[in-house]
Amino acid sequence: METELNNTAPTRSIEFKRRMIAGLLGYGAGNDKKIQNILADLSLGETNGSRNKSYNGFDMRKLRQALTGASADFPAPVLQVDRPEIMAFFYSKGGVGKTTICANLGVTLAMQGSRVLMIDGDPQASLSTMFDVDVEADIVTFGDAIDTINVSKRRFDLATAVISPVRGIKMDLIPADQRMVRTDIILGSTAYREKAVQKLFSENADFFKTYDFVLIDTAPSVTPLSFSIVAAADRIIAVVELAGMALKATNNLFAMVQELEEGAHRRVPITFVPNGLHGSKRYTADTLEVIRKKFSGKNLVNVSNTVIPEYAGLSRHAKISTNRTLMEAEPTSAAALKMIELAREMEYLAVTDQNVKQEA
Ligand SMILES: Nc1ncnc2c1ncn2[C@@H]1O[C@H](COP(=O)(O)OP(=O)(O)O)[C@@H](O)[C@H]1O
Ligand SMILES: [Mg+2]
Q: Is the pLDDT assigned to residue 69 strictly greater than 70?
């Protein structure tokens, strides 16, 4: 069934220009010329009829690998680990932009040359839908993986559930569908429910070694499944909408982290990502200020420096055209540039988390 899925998986092209590459690498567009020389030296890219070359995520990876050793002023960290950074997108409120930012961040990281695995952990399957997966079809989902180890007590090979929805980058997806509601209910009556996802991941350690990042989208509530996902994560990414009531849901978030700390003796760090800043909506800036004040100086909690603006393109590209993410459709828009900034920040956080893990 998985081969059938792979064959029917939609492919879209990720192609970008030198100027874009400079931005993705963190050199800024001003260093265009420098990038041009490095690209030529490495003979990367593909000539597409004209004199212009197009580049993809795999070129970016080669470029970054070469640069890490070759250039002392390389601005972006590259993960050098044998285990990916696992980031769970969790916030106990819907409609705040979790899925949108998770999807665009995944594509952006992959465009920068990281190897990314996306997991749809929400029975609503909006992440899967965003990547054109037909969730009505007979597909292998993350829920099937959990049911197999939890109910059938057998090993599940995660590689069999993977599809690659975007051509030209290493970004794989394990989808979800409505059946996962049942997975969640069964998980709720299982002893050690918080260990289920951890167990699935550690049984697939070799598969995980092939990725730098694992981004998991979750349902907007504290369910056994989202709890188990967060328990297996290195970091929680809490997308917080810059609107009234934004902070109410943080109580649930901290309560969950506390419960995890008591049960699993591990404190999961949280990064808040503010979403929806709008120049002429004063309350968005005010809310941002409140958030920064509230969480500054808190142990293992931070607010990302990057603030995602309200931008119609983010919702527009979730619905029409074959480019379902902003990063695919408008990689040079102002909002996409913010996504690049966020990806850079996430890479730094990942390096920090990996260092902590090594010391432990
Ligand atoms: N920064 C933004 N600017 C404009 N629209 C946004 C932005 N972030 C999210 N949206 C839109 O808001 C809606 C809810 O976002 P979604 O990612 O599905 O939230 P969640 O996963 O938290 O439920 C979607 O229609 C999405 O396109
Ligand atoms: Mg969602």
A: no
User: How far, CA to CA in Å, does 15 sit from each of 18, 129, 257?
Assistant: 10, 22, 40
What band does 136 get if pLDDT is binned at 50, 70 and 90?
very high
pLDDT at position 11 is 75
Site to probe by mutation for ligand 1, drawn from 100, 104, 277, 306 as the one with most ligand atoms within 8 Å of Cβ, is 100
For the Cβ of 220 lying below 6 angstroms from any atom of ligand 1, the answer is yes
64 pLDDT tier (thresholds 50, 70, 90): confident
Q: Which domains does the chain have, with CATH numbers?
A: 18-70 (no CATH), 80-359 (3.40.50.300)
Of the listed ligands, the closest to the CA of 334 is: 1
Cα–Cα distance for residue pair 25/74, rounded to 1 Å: 8
**How far apart (Å, rounded) are the C-alpha atoms in residues 179 and 136?**
10
Nearby residues for ligand 2 (ion, Cβ within 5 Å): 98-99, 126
